[in-house]
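In the previous lecture we treated proteins in isolation. Real proteins rarely work alone, and many bind small molecules. This record shows how such a complex is specified: first the sequence, then the SMILES for flavin-adenine dinucleotide.
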Amino acid sequence: MADYDFDLFVIGAGSGGVRAARVAAGFGARVAIAESDRPGGTCVIRGCVPKKLLVYAARFREDLEDAAGYGWSAGATFSWPTLIANKDREIARLEGIYRTLLEAAGVTLIEGRATLADRHTVQVGERRWTAAHILIATGGRPVRPEVPGSGFAITSDEAFQLPELPARVLIVGGGFIAMEFAGIFHGLGAEVTLAYRGEQILRGFDDDVRRHLHDELVRKGVDVRLQSQLGCIERRADGRLVAALTTGGRAERIEADAVMFATGRVPTTSGLGLEAAGVALDAQGAVAVDAYSASSVPGIHAVGDVTNRLALTPVAIREGAALATTLFGGRRVAIDHKDVPHAVFSQPPVGSVGLSEAAALSALGKVDVYATTFRPLKHTLSGRDERTLVKLVVDAASQRVVGAHMVGPDAPEIIQGIAIAVKAGLTKEQFDATVALHPTAAEEFVTLRDKREVHSTR
Ligand SMILES: Cc1cc2nc3c(=O)[nH]c(=O)nc-3n(C[C@H](O)[C@H](O)[C@H](O)COP(=O)(O)OP(=O)(O)OC[C@H]3O[C@@H](n4cnc5c(N)ncnc54)[C@H](O)[C@@H]3O)c2cc1C
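The predicted 3D structure, ligand included, written as tokens:
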């Protein structure tokens, strides 16, 4: 590989790219990484981390309300500029850590937008570098629906930098980012309307989870409009926005101080020179890769959101490490995308691992379902009208637990633990043999007894 400037040139210093670069350098490879924005990528700069900080901020409202039932009286005011400034300081600190980690690993950071000149050459600005292997780790970007006035709307990228908290927010979308920002804005005191064109929020999640979260959002005061199509957005003379929606066939106009699109993300592949290099893209415009993250062109690889496999940070990290090990570690490592746990940091939050009831039914034909809803102990004194859902989906033939789902406080933390059992292929009997940890919500996962047998109608 000595004829090239580098053994590996990574385009994109996000979750997947940085991990691949560091692991490859650890194996002794000469590595460069180009970044057009800030090292850390979506997760650190404008995704998971700032989002979770805003979620924490939003939760204080209910915590303060709940405290009254426990004898506390507290008066509190909220400052959006303080929150954003503190969040920005933390993100800058994390960005610094990413820079230090790359430097310590001996990876050359090249700041600027990179494009492929050919299958072994990358261009950044006026300069060109050659590499034996090139890794596309350019992530994804938010989709903006093509409706008149769409330029007046923000996406999650801008939501983190608003100068002030909008008093009324219309969120368009029904996926996890829409749910999370509905909880953030509502918790911080905004009036939130959520408009989603589908029949139920959170497509792809278990149907009980979708219904349960929908009902909880409505109960908390989020105005959820299903089967609602956005027609256009107008800006009035006073700066306020008006969105034209058609909800259930009925036309309506919603006034808002901010309209946020949470209508999905697309892989960042355009303008990179991929087509010219002969790299095959799939129907969604993602780089098509095999189980080892190799593209259709030898020497060009892709990991993370740009491959549109599972758009989650820990997945991008795994893919990056696996690729570096395959290329430079002397061992071919394929990625296993099965039973990856995922969360929605909504209010209340969701945690899920494995198959939904519908997916299990279609894959297995016959499943046993165990589910319960209950009022969390905390709310006996707080008086809050909120219920938790816990559900297990079990393969009727093998009795293996193939899906675990929860909506309620700490669901993501709890499901991370349950995911080990699901990944290990444990049976319902083994769940039942585990003694409960009392009093917790998590204990419901080992005390579920009422079985519902479900057969596929295929
Ligand atoms: C609002 C939001 C919340 C999220 N919350 C979660 C969560 O809670 N949990 C979770 O697991 N995942 C979450 N995600 C998803 C997660 O952020 C992504 O899955 C993850 O960041 C993907 O990593 P990546 O390396 O593929 O791409 P990215 O992290 O997006 O990194 C790609 C990098 O490439 C750079 N780049 C692009 N083009 C070029 C170019 N031509 N030249 C140089 N650099 C380039 C970009 O600037 C970027 O820094 C969230 C995403 C969003 C938007």
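Summary for your notes: The chain is about 35% helix and 25% strand. The pocket of flavin-adenine dinucleotide is lined by residues 11-17, 34-37, 41-43, 47-48, 51, 113-114, 137-139, 156, 177, 268, 272, 304-306, 311-314, 316 (CB under 6 Å).
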